[in-house]
Write a structure and sequence with these properties.
The chain is an alpha+beta fold. It has eight helices and 38 strands. The chain folds into four domains: 3-79, lambda repressor-like DNA-binding domains (434 Repressor (Amino-terminal Domain)); 108-191, no CATH class; 194-392, no CATH class; 406-574, no CATH class. The termini are far apart.
Length: 633
């Protein structure tokens, strides 16, 4: 006999008669729970009740035991009712035995698990009491001590009730453990929530950080060496904290942004790598030199420009400038940028940023992370260096220049003698970005000379050894510098205009014989019968320490006279060696590879180089004393 089939048949018959379980139970004087068990196949009615049930449901006992109605009333299958009932009861008994075994097994497993849990809990608590005393470790959350106690007590109480002990012993142990649980909970709610805990891990889970804030004092303590449920106190923030947030800049650098009780924004960076224990760090100032950009993001372009003067950031249509004195370096990997003593940005070297040992510059393909500092959620950006780098960074050109070129950027003057190495000229060239014209600076051989204005004074900065060392000399700041010329390392000349009237210029020629340290006036212009002047377009060129040339173009630039000096600029003599009267002396002479002075005499307009034509070329091999006309010129 199938118990499930029997139960299903009972249920169908009950519903055919529109009876509920309770209504059927009332008719045969039993509980509705008994009817429910029959229908679910969990039990079988007493044999004496079969006739009563069959009568109420309008079936025969045989149909009831078969679990289905007979199709042929005249040929009903005859079954042994007593045997059928016996089989049904046997099945129910087997099911009950099986269920008891499962419950017994579940209790056994539960006891084992709870015992293991109690043992582990005790080990954790004893371990905590030991390492907290010996090694100054704490739980990552203060309430864990009391929560683990509660778990141990609850587990112990369940174990006691699962064992077949005397009832009185269970009651006594329940009361005892219950009192301890209540005391533990009371201490938990009193002491366990005095501190707010923040537990965070880096993206690769290699480093963890715990931040605990005392709710009564707002004092924040930082913990590192996070191991399982424990962490060791590292340091305290110097001032009470109203609100705090964290951002992992990389797997071993975490940046904390917080507000003080006075709503002042602060930034604190924690470096968890081995360099934490170093006592000195290599400055990041030079490491960041170059132009950086977030090339992987298309919506907003962020750029960083770093040089020896400052760091400039362009982001969201705004530009920020940070002097290095306003930046705070953290270890060897991070720089906090301040504006008016308020932290504005943080720059952190990425994991792939390797600093070259020789130059202190980040090697090729190294990137940096940039994040704006605020209490809002800010996106960390990865920036790539847009200035090309070679494996050898000794001559790293973070400003690319051709041979003999210069550029003023951010008040810094860069120059290159060979197109390979970029030199930084010392001085503040902020006011000079658009002031340099052809001739009022010098890039020649080993000699470099520029001037700049700062705080109402003028300075000449020059190098005699290709930029390996520099001299910075204050000079007269009257008028404007027209030409700087050094025919040798020690002797130099400056053509300086003090005033302009029509096409004439009042000025002088300054000379140095000690490389630029001291200067004196050697000439104040060409005497025209009324006064001594130069022309607005005048230029000078010295081919040796004492031999030099001066151009004197007219107001329209159609005609240009040329003067020569052989005594270092003291006296000038007008040159007149051209045989063609239509020629002028627009071009200053040059020195060729043989050391001869070469002078091109032209015809045309001195103010428009595209309209002049070289008519005659003269060569002097004796320092300008005699000149020889070249054939076929």
């Amino acid at each position: 006999m199938d118990n499930e089939k029997f139960g299903k048949f009972i249920k169908e018959l009950r519903k055919e008669h529109n009876l509920t379980q309770k209504e059927l139970a009332d008719k045969i004087n039993i509980t509705d729970k008994a009817v429910s068990k029959w229908e679910r196949g969990l039990s079988f009615p007493d044999i004496t009740m079969l006739g009563l049930i069959a009568n109420e449901l309008n079936v025969t006992v045989e149909e009831l035991l078969n679990g289905e109605k007979s199709n042929n009333k005249d040929n009903k299958e005859k079954i042994d009712v007593e045997e059928a009932v016996k089989q049904a009861l046997e099945k129910v008994k087997n099911k009950q035995e099986k269920r008891k075994k499962m419950i017994k097994k579940a209790k056994k497993i539960t006891k084992i698990v709870l015992i293991i849990l109690v043992v582990i809990g005790f080990i954790i608590q004893l371990g905590y009491l030991y390492i907290s005393k010996e090694y100054n470790f704490e739980y990552i959350i203060d309430s864990l001590f009391y929560i683990i106690n509660e778990i141990i007590l609850i587990s112990a109480l369940v174990i006691i009730w699962l064992f077949k002990d005397k009832k009185i012993l269970k009651i006594v142990m329940t009361i005892f453990l219950g009192i301890i649980m209540i005391i533990n909970l009371a201490i938990l709610f009193r002491n366990g929530f005095e501190k707010q805990s923040i537990v965070t891990f880096s993206s690769d889970l290699s480093n963890g950080l715990v931040i605990k804030k005392d709710k009564s004092t707002n004092q924040v303590t930082l913990y590192n060496n996070v191991v399982a449920l424990f962490a060791r106190p590292m340091e305290q923030l110097s001032e009470p904290v109203k609100d705090i947030k964290y951002d992992w800049m990389r797997n071993d650098v975490c940046a904390l942004t917080y507000l003080t009780n006075n709503n002042e924004l602060r930034e604190y960076v924690i470096s968890l790598d081995e360099s934490t224990y170093k006592t000195s760090y290599r400055p990041l100032k030079k490491a960041l030199w170059g132009d950086w950009q977030n090339v992987k993001q298309t919506q907003v372009t962020t750029k960083v420009y770093a040089d020896s003067k400052n760091i400039r950031i362009k982001k969201n249509g705004e530009e920020y400038k940070f002097e290095y004195d306003d930046c705070k370096q953290v270890r060897e990997n991070s720089l906090i940028l301040y504006k008016d003593n308020v932290p504005k940005f943080i720059i952190t070297l990425s994991e792939n940023a390797v600093i070259d040992d020789e130059t202190g510059i980040i090697k090729d393909k190294g990137t940096i992370y940039l994040k704006e500092i605020s209490m809002n959620k800010e996106i960390k950006e990865e920036l790539y260096c847009m200035t090309p780098k070679d494996d050898d960074l000794t001559d790293y050109n973070y400003v690319n220049l051709a041979k003999g070129d210069f550029e003023v950027r951010n008040g810094i003057l860069y120059v290159s003698l060979d197109g390979k190495k970029t030199l930084e000229v010392p001085g503040d060239f902020t006011e000079m970005e658009d002031s340099y014209k052809d001739g009022n600076y010098l890039i020649s051989g080993e000699k470099i000379a520029f001037y700049y204005n700062e705080n109402g004074s003028r300075y000449l900065v020059y190098s005699n050894n290709k930029g390996n060392s520099w001299n910075n000399i204050q000079i007269s700041n009257y008028g404007s510098i027209k030409i700087i010329d050094f025919p040798s390392q020690n002797v130099g000349y400056i053509l300086q205009f003090l005033d302009l009237a029509m096409s004439s210029a009042v000025g002088n020629i300054l000379k140095t014989t000690d490389g630029g340290t001291t200067w004196k006036v050697v000439n104040e212009g060409i005497d025209n019968g009324y006064d001594k002047t130069y022309k607005e377009g005048s230029k000078i060129k010295f081919t040796s320490d004492n031999v030099g040339f001066l151009t004197m173009p007219d107001v329209n630039g159609d005609v240009c006279d040329l003067y020569i000096t052989k005594d270092g600029g003291v006296n000038f003599e007008k040159m007149n060696i051209a045989t063609n009267p239509e020629c002028d002396y627009y071009h200053l002479p040059t020195v060729n590879e043989e050391g001869q002075i070469e002078l091109n005499i032209t015809k045309g307009y001195a103010s428009d180089e595209s309209r002049y034509k070289t008519m005659q070329v003269f060569i002097s091999s004796d320092g300008g004393n005699t000149w020889v006309l070249q054939e076929n010129s």
